[in-house]
Design a protein that fits this description.
Largest sheet: 6 strands, parallel
Number of strands: 11
Strand content: 15-25%
Strand order of the largest sheet: 1-11-8-7-5-6
CATH architecture of the largest domain: 3-Layer(aba) Sandwich
Distance between the termini: 52 Å
Number of helices: 10
CATH topology of the largest domain: Rossmann fold
Length: about 290
């Protein structure tokens, strides 16, 4: 196995130390408001991890847990309160929401100045035209990982597999920006002969939500592979009865890639770290005002 392992854990720890250092110097304490509706186990786990990360970096975290039967009106009221709260610099509404609450309407209720997930139409629009904004956390983390791997993307060919609003589309936009300067191909379920695109790529970002979407025979020698996928597959040898794998077949891709992110421990740790990064940035702007 010749590929260098791009450790999201290592980079995340380094960035969090930097965030903690800057947080300690600020005249205001960065505050993150996290809203959780219902008790989806995965969501509860994410929220707990976010709270722990806030504490470790010296930030203030306020968790608001609402029952699953909460009305849309009540949730929007909670967001309005957080929008006007001077102690809160970032607002995160944990997704998915219960089916009776429209996610789009809830996201758009968050003030763009506190939208540290980078999900509102205003921040997405700003990102698209290259204005200053909160970058979405996972795509921003992916850029940091590629930089950490020592790859200069200028003039390189990047292939993104997946067109979700949370990862695929924004990461394609960020890779193509002038500051990054990559040539980008966006592939998805409607792409014919996916292999013909991935074999040309200097870097492949795979965010398809399906194991073995990318295999070793689909990449060229020396490519960089960023695996965003987190899939549970049955494994009777594990106490849990399952194991986590990415969207890339790690063993075969690692034989040909120059660098690859593991699952777990690759992209995952970076998402919460970039959330803290955005919250710190929001607090800096608040202090400057």
């Amino acid at each position: 196995m010749g590929a260098k392992i791009i450790s999201g854990k290592e980079l995340s720890a380094s960035l969090r130390a930097q965030i903690a250092e800057e947080t300690a110097k600020l005249p205001v304490r960065p505050g993150l408001g996290v809203v959780l509706v219902g008790d989806n186990p995965a969501s509860v786990s994410y929220v707990t991890a976010k709270e722990k990360a806030c504490r470790e970096t010296g930030m203030y975290s306020r968790e608001i847990r609402l029952p699953a039967e909460t009305t849309k009106e009540a949730l929007l009221g909670t967001i309005r309160e957080l929008n006007s709260d001077e102690a809160i610099h970032g607002i995160l509404v944990q997704l998915p929401l219960p089916k009776h609450i429209p996610e789009k309407e809830v996201i758009e209720a968050i003030s763009p100045d506190k939208d540290v997930d980078g999900f509102t139409a205003i921040n997405v629009g700003r990102m698209l035209i290259g204005e200053k904004c909160f970058l979405p956390c996972t795509p921003h983390g992916i850029l940091k990982l590629i930089e950490f791997a020592g790859m200069d993307l200028s003039g390189k060919h990047a292939v993104v597999i997946g067109r979700s609003n949370i990862v695929g589309k924004p990461v394609a936009v960020l890779l193509a920006r002038k500051e990054t300067n990559a040539t980008v191909t966006l592939c998805h379920t409607g792409t014919n002969d996916l292999k013909s695109y991935t074999r040309q790529a200097d870097v492949v970002v795979v965010a398809a939500g399906r194991p073995d979407t990318l295999t070793g025979d689909m990449i060229k020698e020396g490519a960089v592979v960023i695996d965003v996928g987190v899939n549970r597959i049955p494994d009777e040898t594990r106490p849990s009865g399952f194991r986590l794998v990415g969207d890339a077949d790690f063993e075969s891709c690692a034989q040909k890639a120059s660098a690859i992110t593991p699952v777990p421990g690759g992209v995952g740790p970076m998402t919460i770290t970039m959330l803290l990064w955005n919250t710190l940035e929001s607090a800096k702007r608040h202090a400057a005002r």
